[in-house]
Design brief:
Layout: E1 17-31, E2 36-37, E3 41-42, E4 46-64, E5 71-76, E6 79-80, H1 85-95, E7 105-113, H2 124-142, H3 151-165, E8 177-180, E9 194-195, E10 208-212, H4 223-228, H5 236-256, H6 259-278, H7 289-305, E11 310-312, E12 319-323, H8 328-339, E13 348-352, E14 358-361
Helix pairs in contact: 2-3, 5-6
The structure holds ligand DP6.
């Protein structure tokens, strides 16, 4: 498939309005996307676990209008929000070519997250995928030609649009494991996320992700800037090829159920991501002292208890603890007894691998 296949060619201009509603989850990358080309094309492939409970719920109400510009309002948790507008404006500009009806309607976008606002959890994946899904459901209402009912087309276009909002958002449409970015080990595309097509051993069923909220503040450097710093980065070429290798390794590991090997790849990816930040010019550090305290505690705990718990990080200070379901009780005890002191206001969020987005309003 190419970009051209995602252009809506004709649509019914008689429809006056309506509303649609979706909930879409966050995801946590095992092999990290860090570095992109023009038009949100990733420099390297990534693979993520889709989450279940950390999600964004978005309702879009659309009503016919006359003027030839984008018109929308955003309400975040019930309150009108101006701060989100520029990002949505850019998103509309990027996707208009694929959705030519965008200037025909006024959109009221009402959105909320299940996780606390400013928890430091990236909401761009769940947020942008939820909006993309709503707009695509509106497109279906207006469309004569039907790709309607073609789930594979719907999911691909939803992911394609979400990617243009935020790269990692393209991995939130489906679950439980999603690959984005061309590579030789799995079925994949640079344009949208694809469900991981390999075998997944039962050791990874219901895998748990407990997110320790170390720092809820605004990040000093956004992901978008961080990606740009991979241009001309001294280690970029090696890093991109390492990501390809790690994805290939992970494919074998997921099939065999070798959790010890899984831990090595996942933790190495997290630390490499942050190493890229520290070796950018300008350099920056998003981990906090408590991030390192937690990592060290996890290593100690794993060695002493023959546990399979591991950590990963996204572009921030919070720590995602990944572990098999059969360790849940022990790990939650460990968190309460030893890790909660490193969390801001003692906060952490329990989540697990999930199936992807759901339409909840038609
Ligand atoms: C570290 O998807 O937030 O979480 O495309 O600029 O919106 P933009 O970046 P974003 O980058 C996420 C980077 C990451 C790794 C990952 O999720 O793969």
């Amino acid at each position: 498939m190419t970009e051209i296949d995602f252009i809506l060619k004709s649509y019914n201009t008689d429809i006056k309005g309506g509303s649609v509603k979706w909930e879409s989850p966050s995801n946590i990358a095992l092999v990290k996307y860090w570095g992109k080309k023009e038009n949100q094309i990733p420099e390297n492939p990534s693979i993520s676990f889709t989450l279940t409970d950390c999600k964004t719920i978005t309702e879009v109400t659309f009503s016919k209008k006359e003027s030839n510009n984008f018109s929308f309002d955003i309400y975040f948790e019930g309150e009108k929000n101006e701060a989100f507008k520029p990002k949505i404006q850019t998103f509309f500009e990027r996707i208009e070519v694929y959705m030519p009806f965008l200037k025909d309607y006024h959109f009221k976008i009402e959105t909320s997250n299940t996780f606390p606002h400013s928890s430091g959890i990236a909401s761009s994946a769940s947020g942008m995928s939820a909006i993309a899904l709503c707009l695509l459901s509106i497109e279906q209402k207006l469309s004569y030609t039907s790709n309607r009912g073609d789930l594979s087309y719907f999911d691909k276009k939803a992911s394609f649009l979400a990617r243009l909002g935020s790269g990692s958002a393209c991995r939130s449409i489906n679950g439980e494991l999603v690959v984005w970015g061309k590579n030789k080990s799995t079925e994949s595309s640079d344009l949208y996320g694809v469900k991981f097509d390999g075998k997944v051993h039962e050791n990874f069923s219901n895998y748990q992700d407990t997110i320790l909220l170390v720092d809820k503040g605004e990040k000093q450097v956004s992901s978008t800037i961080g990606h740009k710093l991979m241009y001309g980065h001294p280690f970029a070429k090696e890093r991109f090829s390492q990501a390809h290798n790690n994805l290939e390794k992970l494919k074998t590991i997921l099939a065999s159920g070798d959790i010890k090997a899984f831990v090595k790849v996942v933790e190495s990816e997290a630390l490499t991501l942050h190493a890229m930040m520290m070796t950018s010019m300008p350099y920056f550090i998003l981990m906090k002292p408590n991030t390192l305290q937690i990592i060290n505690k996890i290593w100690e705990y794993r060695a002493e208890n023959n546990s399979n718990v591991c950590f990963t990080l996204d572009a921030g200070a919070n720590v995602h603890m990944l572990y098999p379901e059969n360790e849940k009780e022990n790990i939650l005890e460990f968190i309460k007894n030893e890790l909660v002191i490193y969390c801001q206001n003692g906060h952490y969020i329990c989540d697990q691998i999930g199936l992807g987005a759901n339409q909840i309003g038609f």
